[in-house]
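Entry for the shared binder. Reason: the reviewer on the internal report wants the predicted structure included alongside the sequence.
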Amino acid sequence: MSVLFPHGLAGVIFDCDGVMIDSRESNNIFYNRVLEHFDLPPMTPEQEEYCFMATAVQSLLHIVPPHLHGQIEYVTREVVNYRRDILPMLRLQPGFTEFIDDLRDRRVRMAVHTNRRFEGIQTVLDIFGLPTYFDPVVAADTAAPKPSPEGTRHICSAWGVSPETVLFVGDSEHDKEAARGAGVVFAAFGSGPLRGQITVTDYAGLHAALDRTLPPQKAEA
């Protein structure tokens, strides 16, 4: 593993959905409720996959027929409200809190690069008490959405580190393309078919994969 980080591991970038939080099912519920309001059938597997990677705006425009686009804003504000109806369903991925606590103890920088809007990711971080862990937080309305590498490049620049010392943990082809475009190491997370320079199914596996790369924990005062 040290071959991947010959100059050490300086920072870890996390995608949000599917990596930090278990949200695939709740996101599907949201989009299917919108479709149900329009008397449309539930999403197909292909639509589910698209919506899991894309921004909310891109997803809604993709699954709702064009002649109904003018009603989307009203429906998602008054009928199926994500903050009110869906956010309470979100759960952190098992082992995530322990993993980021360990990274912080080792003085490894952490950031988020998500295709959620900035307000949305800040709400997620606030709900789980996580804002102090991540800086910067890059969202779909503060940089070009993934698969563009713009946000990942911005994070490396903000940290003042070389891309080869940074790990991006993601679970989609968009994440992988953003990592590749920015020149950072990519870890494919989850049980799907995605593969990366590191491939793991959970945080215990990721910690084990990085064990020889992680800097030592800071000494107790």
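Summary line for the report: DSSP finds ten helices and eight strands in the chain.
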